[in-house]
Design a protein that fits this description.
308 residues; homodimer; 37% helix; globular; 5-stranded mixed sheet; 9 helices
């Protein structure tokens, strides 16, 4: 018995076969952006999968799980994803079901990561936790009572679009001050451009245009501007997490994605500001954890676990 | 078959017998604050219940459900409730179980109200909604996937303690700027005292000390200060609800309690500001509803439904 996990990303799509113990025994990557027509994209994935499945024709395949930005669990569609080549509503589950005659379940990428962490990673055994992806944007998956909170329409978990700064930075969603304009890998670069103006001797002034990785590298060298950039970012994230804890009271919050790779530079200020701002009953009680799974595997594992 | 619902409040405690269809066929009220010793409180409730139960000795009693401030579903205790006569941790479920030899389930008052609305009221048939009680404080109950979100420790749903104004008004919790310092029945009075300074001719200046009811009465008469007070309060609540929707994507939000009785004076600005601030996919899609149950009955019905 095995299942198929597909992690659709704006740049690449990862495909894997996963056994019952969460071992990925076949995997490959294709370029998402090459496939302007969704049918070509599905065909390309089929070409990858068919030989693998034929090799294992003696085993039952449980189905196909897909994690995708703006993937909707209820409708099986990708809906108005700004960073994917296909516009409008894409009935991806239907397309795969027609081709493979297997059960297909879709959810958004952060929810798939949450399921991956719950089944195999840092959230093993937890029934109430949050996973937050700090990548190009900020995504999130909320688990309560052992299940993903999908909301009434399948679109819950948009922590990246909580407004943390009224009239703040313009967000891709058209509003201002969303969390993801501050605490994503792109948001921290915007903060950096503001902060380095106060630090003419910061090494970051010589690294323009900046990336979140360069801010991390500068912080490791003790660059004062870089440290202040992480402090500012951790404050905004920590304050938002304190408010979020008041709603779902998670056992742990898992930080994941590009910015989380900065380790204690982002974890320490985030945790400190979360604890300063949280209702006292939760003071120092909510764990802030890194993912326990290889970053490339989480979404494949989570997607595959959707059909288990 | 019937069940017992108990709604423990700071001032009064309501006790009811509820049949399978949600009809309260016996009910009474006792003064909570009279009973400094928790054992006397439990005895008083027993004295009320015993004759009712004897009358119905031919029927099975499913158990006792209790809604109480700071009531913890997991532990069966009331924990550090600031507005009750009993300090520290009160093992209320144990005390009732010992006396009645029946299953006893406790939750906080807002969660009990959520269950009441889900089973018999405005949230009938909904699997994802929020109830917000705008009383002396602000309480909330979150339902996702058809179940209450209790969180890892039973304390989830503290929307009243989301910080909406950094360094804002001092809250009873010891922090500053919590939602309940602005949008509770007491919070709106504080806003009123600020606003009426700009309106020397407002009738509210002659009603000091104010109550939320008087602000409502003044608004009905078209008092400009009163209308601005509701506008300010609705803005703060609506902005907070917009952020909350991004997390759990509820089908509806039910407003309940003293301040909700102001009807469209509070619903209209709250809904408008929620829709102005929410992520576009939810624009004009989240229902803002009043409770559909008599205010005195909701918590008894919800508490009783805990054991059904």
């Amino acid at each position: 018995m095995y299942s198929i996990g597909i992690d659709v990303g704006g740049t690449t799509t990862k495909i894997g076969l996963v056994d019952e113990d969460g071992k990925i025994f076949k995997q490959d990557i294709i370029d998402t952006s090459t496939y302007v027509d969704i049918n070509d994209f599905v065909d390309a994935i089929e070409q990858t999968l068919r030989p693998w499945m034929q090799e294992r024709s003696h085993l039952a395949c449980k189905g196909i799980g897909i994690g995708a930005p703006n993937g909707n669990f209820y409708t099986g569609s990708i809906e108005f994803a700004p960073n994917l080549p296909w516009k409008g509503v894409v009935p991806l589950a239907d397309l795969f079901e027609t081709k493979f005659k297997l059960p297909v379940i879709i959810t958004n990428d952060a929810n798939a990561a949450a399921i991956g962490e719950m089944r195999y990673g840092a959230a093993k055994g937890m029934n109430n936790f949050i996973i937050i992806t700090l990548g190009t944007g900020v995504g999130s998956g909320f688990v309560a009572n052992g299940g993903i909170i999908y909301g009434h329409d399948g679109a819950a978990g948009e922590l990246g679009h909580v407004i943390v700064q009224p009239n703040g930075r313009l967000c891709g969603c058209g509003r201002n001050g969303c969390l993801e304009t501050y605490t994503s890998a792109t948001g921290i670069v915007k903060t950096a451009l503001e902060v380095i103006q106060k630090y003419p001797s910061s090494i970051l002034n010589q690294k323009l245009p900046l990336s979140s990785k360069e801010i991390f590298e500068a912080a490791k060298e003790g660059d004062q501007a870089a440290l202040e950039i992480f402090e500012t970012t951790g404050k905004i994230l920590g304050e938002c997490l304190a408010n979020t804890v008041a709603i779902t009271s998670p056992e742990a919050i898992i930080l994941f994605g590009g910015l989380a790779r900065a380790g204690h530079f982002i974890f320490e200020p985030t945790e400190r500001h979360m604890n300063t701002n949280v209702l006292r009953i939760w003071n120092n009680k909510i764990k802030l954890l890194p993912s326990m799974l290889p970053e490339n595997d989480v979404a494949i594992l989570g997607a595959a676990a959707l059909v288990v």
